[in-house]
Amino acid sequence: MDQAIARVARAIECAERILVISGAGLSAESGLPTYRGIGGLYNGFTEDGLPIEQVLSGPVLRSQPALCWKYLAELGRACLGAQPNAGHLAIAELQRRKPQCWVLTQNIDGFHQRAGSPEERLICIHGAMQPLYCQSCAAESETLEAALRGGLPPRCQACGGILRPPVVLFEEMLPEAALEQLYSELGKGFEVVLLVGTSASFPYIAEPVLRTRQAGGFTAEINPDLTLLSHSVDVRLAGRALDVLVNLLSHISSH
Ligand code: NAD
Ligand code: ZN
Question: Which CATH number fits domain 1-31+84-128+173-255: 2.40.50.1020, 1.10.3720.10, 3.40.50.1220, 3.20.20.100?
């Protein structure tokens, strides 16, 4: 393991353009359950007897906002009640040391921002839980925290419409701006791609890894379990995100 970490650290030290791709496994150590994989939250059905993919979908938010918001509120409370961990901090510190290091995250918890990752080098491909906005008039609204204190679903103070978070629900499109940014940066190429705590089940997560490999770049994965990309990366670090990231950073010089 130590040798493997040293190898990844060396690749990162020699590189300028680096992409860290994070998934739910990174925030698992902050106490937020992952979706699939170890400790998966939604392996079964919700207490309403429906699959989570249905209750947390765009169509259900429109047709049964109270039902969808019951689960959005659970997610929101979990995010507000937890903190970024040393893994998020290590990634933000790596971005400080490497001014061309980008983060592509599937997480909606806002922990990268809270840990100090710069907004301009952070792509939240599945959106975020804040700020809430009105589905009817698009006005930005009160904080998530305030909305969760009131009755659900929360309503717009201007027009009474239903509020929603800018998160990508099931059956919804990815945010255009995030996609454009991702593909524009991918076009410039990355020398190193590091996957952290993701099952890599989406094509736009696998693509940066496969493209970078094809172009002769270096790829690595931090995950205690095997994933769809485990056999496609140069180095697999089979461990927990927090431990491995902190260890990895200690091998990378600060100037
Ligand atoms: P995933 O749940 O599909 O996979 C999580 C991965 O993390 C698994 O491969 C698992 O082996 C790994 N893992 C578990 N514990 C780990 C640890 N301590 N260190 C490192 N890896 C660990 O997550 P995903 O790939 O991010 O995709 C799930 C979807 O659910 C995404 O769309 C995401 O938006 C959403 N989601 C977000 C959050 C969040 O914001 N924190 C939490 C759950 C789900
Ligand atoms: Zn409104």
Answer: 3.40.50.1220
- 3-class DSSP assignment, residue 39: coil
pLDDT single digits (tens) 220-230: 999 999 999 99
Helix residue spans in the chain (DSSP H): 2-14, 24-28, 52-55, 58-63, 65-80, 86-97, 111-115, 144-149, 176-188, 203-214, 241-250
State the fold for domain 33-81+130-164: SIR2/SIRT2 'Small Domain' (3.30.1600)
**What mean pLDDT comes out for the span 67-96?**
95
> Which of 20, 34, 248 to mutate to test ligand 1, by most ligand atoms within 8 A of the CB atom?
34
Question: 16: left (phi > 0), else alpha (psi -120 to 50), else beta?
Answer: alpha
Q: Quick one: which ligand is closest to 40's CA?
A: 1
The catalytic site residues sit at 126
